[in-house]
Amino acid sequence: MTIDEHRLAFMKGVIATTASNGQLITYSQIRRLCRLSMEQVGAYLGEARRRVLLAGQPDFCAIVVGDDGTPGSGWFDPHVGATSLSWAAEVQRVHTFWRDRKSLDNTAFGAAHGELPAEPGLDG
Q1: CA–CA separation, 117 vs 124, rounded Å?
Q2: Which residue has the higher pLDDT, 10 or 82?
Q3: Element of type H or E holding 65
Q4: What gap in Å lies between CA 32 and CA 88, rounded to an integer?
Q5: Helix or strand or coil: residue 71?
Q6: Which position has the higher pLDDT, 74 or 113?
Q7: Model confidence at 34: pLDDT above 80
Q8: At what angle do helices 5-20 and 84-103 cross, to 10 degrees?
Q9: What is the pTM of this model?
Q10: 85 alpha-carbon distance from chain centroid
Q11: Exposure b/e, 93-109, CB count within 10 A at least 16 = b
Q12: Which of 55, 65, 72, 107 keeps 20 to 30 A from 38, CA to CA?
């Protein structure tokens, strides 16, 4: 599947904004807001996740949940150390990181988190 970089940038912005407000967002909401098919949602979230993890940022895809409020099945895989506690901890890290990005100037954010986040939009 080909990833449309502009659609990916929009989705990353939606997730970062949602995280900065301390909220969760559902797969269905992401699908509708970003005009993705059900098959595309996973591919786009996977690509977004890969990029933020490579940049050393918290996994902001942790805030994307099912319609019932539960995280994806990958958060409960004991083979990779994923549990409901690790998911909850990651959600807190994501909310703190993006709340601070929204409210702190660059110098203060860098002091708290080490560096500014990778742009939630296009890489480059």
Answers
A1: 13
A2: 10
A3: strand 64-65
A4: 25
A5: strand
A6: 113
A7: yes
A8: 90
A9: 0.85
A10: 17
A11: bbbebbeebeeeeeeeb
A12: 55
Mean pLDDT across the stretch 50-66?
A: 90
5, containing H or E segment: helix 5-20
Residues with Cβ within 8 Å of residue 37, at least 6 apart in sequence: 31
Q: What are phi and psi of 12, to 5 degrees?
A: -60, -40
Side-chain-side CA neighbours of residue 27 (13 Å): 19
Q: Cβ(13)–Cβ(117) under 8 Å?
A: no
Spatial distance between the Cα atoms of 16 and 8, rounded to a whole number of angstroms: 12
User: Coil, strand or helix: which one is 36?
Assistant: coil
SS3 104: coil
Neighbours of 69 (CB within 10 A): 8
Q: Other C-beta atoms within 10 Å of 56: how many?
A: 11
In the predicted model, is pLDDT for residue 97 greater than 90? yes
